[in-house]
Amino acid sequence: MRRDPLTGDEVVVVAARQKRPNLPSEGCPFCVGGLEAPEPYEVRSFANRFPPLPDDRAEVVLYSPRHDAAFWELGVDGARRVVDLWAERTTALGSRDDVAYVLVFENRGPEVGATIPHPHGQVYAFDEVPPEPLAELGDGPCALCTPPPDAQVVASGGGWSAWVPEAATWPYELRLAPAAHEPDLPSLGDGARDGMASVLVDALARLDRLFGAPMPYMLWIHQRPTDGGSWPGAHVHVHVAPLLRFAGTPRFVAAGELGSGVFFNPVDPSAAAEELRRA
Fold first, then answer.
1. Domain residue ranges of the chain, discontinuous segments joined by +
2. Could you tell me the maximum CA-CA distance found in the chain, to the nearest angstrom?
3. Cα–Cα 20 to 30 A to 205, which of 34, 66, 228, 259?
4. Which listed residue (120, 222, 235, 239) is catalytic?
5. Is 120 an active-site residue?
6. How far is Cα of residue 245 from the mean position of the Cα atoms in its chain?
7. What distance in Å separates the CA atoms of residue 21 and residue 38, rounded to the nearest whole number?
8. HSE value, Cβ hemisphere, 13 Å, CA-based, for 18
């Protein structure tokens, strides 16, 4: 772990990962009978063979034995199994003395760096609370407890909503959260987990229907740290950053944005929400 003395940004240098394979040479390692899934499974997790964090603090989560399934194609029952596994791994990793924060995430599509198309995500267990979730855990009122404007809402059900944020950075960005102030995945009861699975399936299907093609996206879940603090402001939620701003056209983050820290979204969030409601 290194910190830039000018910006204060943290970087983990993992030079050994440069040697990891970009594509499997023989078959899919995540299919049943493959290297990482020798036995039949419904969902599965295992330590990353090329970890960016030491001591088994990086895991891979397999969503389904179906090689070509999108997350939304798992259906609510299949998505619920994934939600349960996310919660289970949060509890298991978060109970370790050397883990302060559990980040669940997915990179979907080669455009965002996914090298294996089999549906899967990852879990990183950090020894400190990372800057992005920490910035959301302020002392003020919980922004997620205020319902989003109706014009921004894309889907809802089971106590959860999915909406395009009013100040979205990505053109079809989505945020998903329960109305109840639940701190983390393990705290969600059966109904809330069903609601999360249902709205995830609904919202991610809309992204694929939007341009009639699989939408590359980055998805991550922010939740309460596991360092033993109370963190009263923690409200579990999902961020989805879709790559495309138009069919076949990526939304590039350019120098003017990175250099200033101010982002310029070419699609009005209300218009994006309307398009996704129609999809």
1. 21-278
2. 52
3. 34
4. 120
5. yes
6. 19
7. 20
8. 4
